[in-house]
């Protein structure tokens, strides 16, 4: 039997584990799933005869080394900062490694050792990062192969709620880590390049500078800029592209309403609120507003944020219970962001029968034979249920497919890498189509931003 060790059995691991076990008979696989909770690991295996579930603590050095030694490939689904010890052991025992996380500087430092030992250390092979890399590089390479010169690249991705489960005014529910949603965009200005000019959006303005996107069959979406759109510019070979922009997708209207919470200060994670455990939701909202002897919290907020009473934004704020005088926060020494996360987690939780949805959208602008052209590439994936969500599918399946292809020596280039070569992206994208992850590429008229080439 060939052994695969999967460390971490969280939400994103369900489709990954199912894929490996579904292929275990034909591929002669023994899959060990290790998690702090052995019970959780067991649930994900469904008592499959080729699966072994163990209680696994990454900080138990003896256990970690023993399990890694037994494996042929190690898949780490741990939080990114915990990959490193696993990676070092993989170097020591000459094991291939796969993660869905961004390549950290410390991971990159292992590149020479991985190459020296002929090891594939595949990273950034989930959804975003992952499927975004592969689907973008496929089209970029095709354009270059026919002699095209890339002048524009835009890439958008969002984890949303499926249309049939979209039951609130925000058109949004938490399909992933709520904390990441509450803190989105913080930590520096968003930066990108547009028509040859570097642009910056400070956090306080981020949610009022959105782009609109149309996806056939699913209607209109909006996107706000990611913090660093230029991170992959060189990696994708886009150093000469005039526009390079990456963003996060939401339904239209979300960002304008979210901006109210930002302006109030509710997304701040830099200080704690005194007596937060005894505070009501209404008192929390009032704590950001000026004192007035007669005006209600509602009137003060409307005046402060200039919200008309017939504005849909007002209904959205009421819907998330910000003015409830009876509900207590119940968190000791909590930051505003932690309190907001708790309030929203009650309102935006997926119901048992709800389904989630991933939307990805790339725009490619290029010149060929003196003519400007554009290709739009879209992908919509809807989850099956609360276990095999679209998020679990799009994160876990590319990891699983890459793991098997590395084991079968179909992916052999050694080193610390991301999935931007044909050896990796062609077979994985092709197989993903069998699971409903399908990109629709359409030639459209080149829109650009600035047909007169004036610096804006």
From TrEMBL:
Record has Cytoplasm as a keyword: no
This protein's record includes keyword Ligase: no
Protein name stated in the entry: Saccharopine dehydrogenase NADP-binding domain-containing protein
UniProt xrefs under InterPro entries: AASS, NAD(P)-bd_dom_sf, Sacchrp_dh-like_C, Sacchrp_dh_NADP-bd
PANTHER family recorded: ALPHA-AMINOADIPIC SEMIALDEHYDE SYNTHASE, MITOCHONDRIAL, SACCHAROPINE DEHYDROGENASE
Ranges where the Saccharopine dehydrogenase NADP binding domain occurs: 4-122
Domain Saccharopine dehydrogenase-like C-terminal intervals: 126-437
């Amino acid at each position: 039997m060939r052994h695969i060790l999967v460390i971490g059995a969280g939400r994103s691991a369900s489709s990954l584990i199912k894929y490996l076990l579904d292929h275990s008979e034909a591929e002669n696989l023994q899959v060990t799933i290790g998690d702090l909770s052995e019970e959780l690991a067991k649930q994900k295996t469904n008592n499959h005869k080729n699966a072994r579930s163990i209680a696994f603590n990454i900080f138990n050095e003896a256990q970690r080394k023993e399990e890694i030694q037994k494996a042929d490939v190690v898949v780490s689904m741990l939080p990114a900062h915990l990959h490193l010890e696993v990676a070092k052991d993989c170097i020591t025992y000459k094991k291939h490694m796969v993660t869905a996380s961004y390549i950290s500087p410390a991971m990159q430092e292992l590149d020479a050792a991985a190459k020296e030992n002929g090891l594939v250390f595949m990273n950034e092979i989930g959804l975003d990062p992952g499927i975004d890399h592969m689907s973008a590089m496929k089209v970029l390479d095709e354009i270059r192969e026919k002699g095209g010169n890339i002048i524009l690249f835009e890439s958008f991705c969002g984890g949303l709620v499926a249309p049939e489960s979209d039951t609130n005014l925000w058109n949004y529910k938490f399909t992933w880590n709520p904390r990441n949603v509450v803190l989105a965009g913080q930590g520096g200005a968003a930066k990108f390049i547009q028509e040859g000019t570097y642009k910056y959006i400070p956090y306080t303005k981020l949610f009022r500078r959105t782009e609109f996107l149309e996806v056939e069959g699913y209607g209109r979406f909006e996107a706000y800029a990611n913090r660093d759109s230029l991170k992959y510019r060189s990696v994708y070979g886009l150093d000469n592209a005039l526009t390079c922009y990456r963003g996060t997708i939401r339904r239209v209207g979300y960002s304008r309403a979210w901006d109210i919470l930002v302006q109030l200060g509710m997304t701040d994670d830099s200080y704690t609120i005194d007596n937060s455990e005894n505070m009501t939701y209404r008192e929390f909202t009032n704590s950001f507003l000026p004192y007035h002897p007669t005006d209600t919290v509602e009137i003060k907020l409307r005046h402060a944020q200039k919200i008309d009473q017939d504005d849909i934004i007002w209904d959205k704020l009421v819907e998330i219970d910000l003015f409830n005088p009876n509900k207590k926060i119940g968190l000791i020494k909590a930051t505003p962001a932690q309190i907001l996360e708790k309030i929203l987690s009650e309102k935006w939780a997926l119901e048992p029968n709800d389904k989630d949805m991933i939307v990805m959208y790339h725009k490619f602008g290029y010149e060929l034979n003196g003519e400007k052209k554009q290709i739009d590439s879209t992908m919509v994936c809807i989850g099956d249920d609360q276990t095999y969500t679209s998020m679990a599918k799009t994160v876990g399946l590319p990891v699983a497919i890459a793991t098997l292809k590395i084991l079968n020596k179909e992916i052999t280039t050694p080193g610390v890498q991301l999935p931007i070569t044909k050896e990796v992206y062609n077979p994985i994208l092709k197989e993903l189509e069998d699971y409903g992850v399908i990109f629709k590429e359409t030639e459209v008229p080149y829109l650009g931003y600035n047909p007169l080439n004036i610096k804006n």
